Every structure is written in structure tokens, then in C-alpha cells.
Amino acid sequence: MIYRVITVIGFAGVIAVLFTLEYLGRRKNSTIPTLGEFLGYAMRPRAGRLLILLGWLWLGWHFFSR
Amino acid sequence: MTTGDIPGVPERPPRRLRLPTVNGRLAGKAAIGAVLVAYSWVAGGTTPFTRNSLLIVLVPGAVLGVIAYGRPVQRIPPPDRLDLTGSSYWILAIAALFEWEASAFRDFTNTWHPPLSNLVTPALGVHPLKTVAVLMWLLAGWGLARR
Fold first, then answer.
1. Is residue B19 a part of any domain in this protein?
2. Residues of A in contact with B86 (CB under 8 A)
3. Cα atoms in the 13 Å half-sphere on the side-chain side of A32
4. What is the pLDDT of residue A52?
5. How many folded domains does chain B comprise?
6. pLDDT digits (tens, 9 = 90+) for A27-41
7. DSSP-derived 3-state class of residue B9
8. Does A59 reach chain B within 8 Å, measured CB to CB?
9. Assembly ipTM
10. What is the extent of the structural domain holding B66?
């Protein structure tokens, strides 16, 4: 049971880090990009755009279809 | 015979379908929002592992694919360059999330190291919560299409 709690804390911790990064990225003169800027930069090449859109589609399939 | 044929009576411009609000753009957004909420509500009611649950994901995927490649919308210009250190925080955090999820799949023991999808499945079984999740997913897709 304790391992399950550790797993949940691990997921919650990583998700909290993602939100914190977004918050820090939105501050003025921050060197940390926002998630939108980061993904936008990764989507500049056509392959990056395709991969990220496929990742979005996979997330939907993973959580809502199965 | 139209009104334009009568001297002194100007011809009326053709009628267009307009949404009855003061601000047409706001009305358009409200209409799109209503459609998205309705779609999310219907999608939230589907049962996993069914054809309908697959369709509710594939249809927005196809629409977004057409928008992203066929009819691109006005995009938010990406930054010319990113700070390497700042970007590395994102890479590390996303890699950690994938590693934690991948190790859960590798072990596949729901009792002590369940994957994230197993943890959120009970919440997604509640119709309003799944509706909100689908709506967030759709909005994220729209955000990506604009990038």
C-alpha cells in the first residue's frame, strides 16, 4: 500500500513541477519558456508539429477510448 | 420586381445570417464554446472500449488535422530561440512524467505502481468530470493547432 502512495505522490509531484514551470515561465523577463512557447518552438519543423499533434491524439485515445 | 426598380427606393442588401448580439465576434466564440461543451458532454457519456469512444477521439483528430495542415488558422509565432537552461527544465519534467508512467506500464502492478491512466479512470467514470477532461483536451488541441 505504501508503494501505491509513493506512486501517487510521484505523479502529483511531477504534475506540480509542470504547473510551477508554467507559472515561472509567465513571469516577466523569465528565462524559462511557457509550455506554449516550448511546444511552439518544437513544432517549427513539420515533423515536430506532426509528432506533437499525434501525441495529443494519443492522449485522447489513451484516457477516453480505453 | 424588386425595390431597386422603384425610383427613389434603394435596393436592400441581401440578408445574412447573423447571431443576435451586439458583438458578432463574441457571439461566434460563444456559439463555438457551446458546441464544444455539447460535444464534450456527449463524449463524456461514452463507454471506454467501444466504437463511439473511439470516434469521439478520431473526429476531433481529423478536424484538427485538416485545420493544422489543410486550412491553417492564424498562428501564434513561435519564439526564434529558447533559453537552453530554461527549456531543459521542461524536458526534464516531461521526461520524468514519461519515465514514471513507463515504469508503471513495465511493472503493470495496479496495487503498488499503477499507471496514471489507472489512477484517473475512476474519476473519468463520472460523467461531468469526463466532460471537463474532454473539453480541456479539445482546447489543448486547438491551442496546438494555433502554434
1. no
2. 25, 30-33
3. 19
4. 94
5. 1
6. 998 999 999 999 999
7. coil
8. yes
9. 0.89
10. 25-145
